[in-house]
Amino acid sequence: MATLKVNGRSHTVTAAADEPLLYVLGNDLELAGPRFGCGLAQCGSCSVLVDGTEMRSCVTTLGQVGAREVTTLEGLPRWYALRHGKPVGEGAAVPLHPVQQALIDVAAPQCGYCMNGMAIKAAELLSHNLHPTEAQVRTALNGHLCRCGTYPRIIDAVLQAAAVMRKAKA
Amino acid sequence: MSITRRQLLQGSGALVVLLPTWTGVLAQTPPPAVPGTVDLKQVDSWLSIHADNTATLRMGFAELGQGATTALLMVAAEELDLGMDQIRAAPLDTAHSPPQGGTYSSASVQRGRPQVAAAAAEARAALLAMAAQRLGVPTAQLQVVGGVVQVVDAPQRTVTYGQLIGDQQFKLVVSGTAPLKPREQYRLLGTAVPRPDLTDRVTGAKRFIQQTRLPGMVHGRVVRPAGQAAYGAGAVVQNIDEYTIAGIGDARVLRRGNFVAVVATREWDAIKAARALRVSWAPAAGLPDTDALHAAMRRDITTDNTQLNQGDVDAAFAAAPARQTVRFAADGPYQAHAPFAPNCALADVRADSALVICASQDIQNARRSIAPLIALKPEQIRVQFAEGAGTYGHSGYDDVAQAAAVLSQMVGQPVRVQFSRADEQGWDTYGPPHMGEVRLCADALGVITGYQYDGWQHNWSLVDTTTQQLGVAPATEWPVSPVEGVNPLVCGGQYAIAHRKLVNHRLNGLQYFKAGWLRSPLDLSFAFVSEQAVDQLAAQLGLDPVALRQRNITDARWRGVLDAATQAAKWQPRTKAVAAKGVWRSGRGVGLGTHLISYGAAVADIDVNIKTGQVRIRHLYGAIDAGAVVNPGIVEAQITGQLVQTASRMLLEEVPIEQGRSAARDWVSYPILRMQDCPAITPVVVQRMDQRSTGAGEETMAAAAAAIANAFFDATGRRMTRYPLTPARVLAALA
């Protein structure tokens, strides 16, 4: 038995402490954001934020997460709103994270399976750098693979989201 | 758009009777299906109009992330004069989807557009006739806006489609005579309508097959040797040490013939058990190591076939001086589909029926391939499609569905099976390797007079590994397939050549890896060989490679894509490799190619580090002429994906062979392009609304592969005779 904090809620799960977080999120909590790609921390499709830092849930065990706050793709809008003092309570319409919105606006996804990791990693980058250069975006996301070849549009989306976030801050 | 509560209840009610409740794709509940076999000739097979004035389109093609669903919804909405927010796609399901055939050869729009347009036009004509009766005016005085039929002169007099037929059947044959909308009146076709399915793909709302669950299911994993050996050898079990998984939850071993798997209630236990289980496999016939493969292919016994022998090639060569003759040979590797998500399927097999949920490109074929494994008739098996990650051809989607069905029958419970990354990379139906030899000759002005291409490859594999391991069918090659021959469109077919000969040398595929179609099958290899030779001719004659190609093209559409790509790239005539100093040498190249029907052209800008052998692709320009492009925005995305994937396949992708077996296990042993190395991409759609729509999912890849190779020559003055262009091979070519 372990208690897990995910997207602002506490869950009691029966999984052992050495079970990777991914399988608990997918099977016990039935979340579809983090997803299996390799199980080897090589592709980034399982990424989540743990206290705001991107981690690969396929190799991060429940025990390693402990009491820290896990944010999945589903919780990204809430995570962003909280950081910017916007309402997130019951009934509040929480808009998508700007990077999610930008990914839709530039029509980045083809199959979209990589979009979880891309959005999570980009959200992490933009949480500490609102003025990323294209090179910085490429470096930050270099550990996240896409097989459909959507990299150019993902880069555009992250730069576009940064501009939106700068404007929101100004 | 929302599904009405009534439809939801109807749909799920029907499912509960027939089948266990299932989640995931259930979110999009289908409307009532046409009972019995789905008849392509019935309007009701394709379309339902609901009382709330929305429509559901049923299609037999799979959404593979390529956006074809959006394009076909546009086709139906256009003919019916509905808004895009008034129409949705029913999930793909053998119970109600029209059997349009498999979703390959970029055929969804090519074959699907005329079918969907005909059914929708028939429906519209019937609805107009009903409206005319209801409103008491001739149909000529009616117009339709958003599914609302109006009297032209009295627009306040209206009746909606929903009021006319709401959820009733048309009971109407698709005659093919209902008038199609003239293209001058198109509102949607030819415009970049945003894909309505994108939001769910970035929010976590979408459940892929990997995230689909059946109540009461257990998790299964197959157990196979690390990396496949020769297809014909399969894998033969000698011994299983079941005690090696003792204590891993409730995990247990299941075996039938040489098919070995583990199941467990918790997924993590199944994964741990599959890793831990010790199985001794009999030694199997293998392949030569990576760098010895092509020499062995050359020594092999082949079945030769002259596909084309037009004019007198030998006479043309006899007449041409050496300076106007080119001979060139080059090789291509085994490459993997490597879908970003390992294949996954779920099955619930009962005594006299089965439900299989999988990501097959062809659910009808999946059903046929599963039936003999569980001793059911195909019609007793319902296959539902749930999207996986992009597959780019025949990856292991049927293999895994077969495994799920067999395991469900063995345990008497629903089973979900997902491949590991090593299963996927190591047991893929790889794109086969190729050896090509080309010779061509020209007159002094560069008009190609003679052309001969000899290609060596083996065929695709018909029987999936699960079926083979079960002993139900032995390894078997496709009896007839497109890769029995070289592609005449890529091997000189871009040009008007008087004397042309194409010869295929077919190898025995049982001695090689299991193989299948991989996006633009073998075309990258054909173009890598053929278009480098065309480029070499330009170099020998001191001609600009674009000018030489223009001189040899008579087809306006080939000329059109070549012009489009070179104009986008601001091509300036160049006649020899640019003399450059320094470690990084820059080059620019052009290529022409396609897959089966459309036209593709590409320009590549690359840099080569002559000290380290590293190749950087800076920019790729790709143009496609796919006739009438229903949605240019989606095709631009497709071109972008094709070009990035081609960069990956030309620089990095090759299945390593060690000790006879595939050594591809993960993203390190089988790497793909990363974001830092991704070139800038300029996609160009050559729109021809007066032509029929043809495939747009793979037709710039051959051209781009050739453009990259020709840019390498432009940068270095050397030709690459093998791809991917790894640093070691580049340094060897430069030495």
Could you walk me through the main structural features you see in this protein, from its secondary elements to its overall organization?
The complex is a heterodimer of chains A (170) and B (735). Chain A has helices at residues 21-28, 62-65, 76-83, 98-105, 115-128, 134-140, 151-169, and strands at residues 2-6, 9-13, 47-50, 53-56, 69-71. With 170 residues, chain A is an alpha+beta fold. Chain A folds into 2 domains: 2-75, Ubiquitin-like (UB roll); 94-169, [2Fe-2S]-binding domain (DNA polymerase, domain 1), CATH 1.10.150.120. In chain A, strand 3 (47-50) and strand 4 form a beta hairpin. The longest helix of chain A has 19 residues, at 151-169. Chain B has 735 residues and is α+β, with helices and mostly antiparallel strands. Chain B is built from 19 helices and 26 strands. In chain B, helix 3 (68-80) runs parallel beside helix 4 (107-135). Chain B starts with a helix and ends with a helix. At the A-B interface, helix 1, helix 4, helix 5, helix 6 and helix 7 of A face helix 6, helix 7 and helix 17 of B.
Keywords:
heterodimer, A: 170 residues, Ubiquitin-like (UB roll), DNA polymerase, domain 1, 2 domains, five-stranded mixed β-sheet, 40% helix, 12% strand, B: alpha+beta, Aldehyde Oxidoreductase, domain 4, 19 helices
Return residue spans of chain B where pLDDT drops below 50 for at least 5 consecutive residues.
1-35
Distance between the termini of chain A: 46 Å
CATH second-level architecture of the largest domain in chain B: 2-Layer Sandwich
Given the helix and strand composition of chain B, which structural class is it? Answer: alpha+beta
Task: List low-pLDDT spans of chain A.
Answer: none
- Can you tell me the overall shape of chain A? globular
Largest interface: A-B, 55 and 56 residues
Number of strands of chain B: 26
Order of helices and strands of chain A: EEHEEHEHHHHH
Outline of the structure:
The complex is a heterodimer of chains A (170) and B (735). With 170 residues, chain A is α+β, with helices and mostly antiparallel strands. In chain A, 40% of the residues lie in helices and 12% in strands.
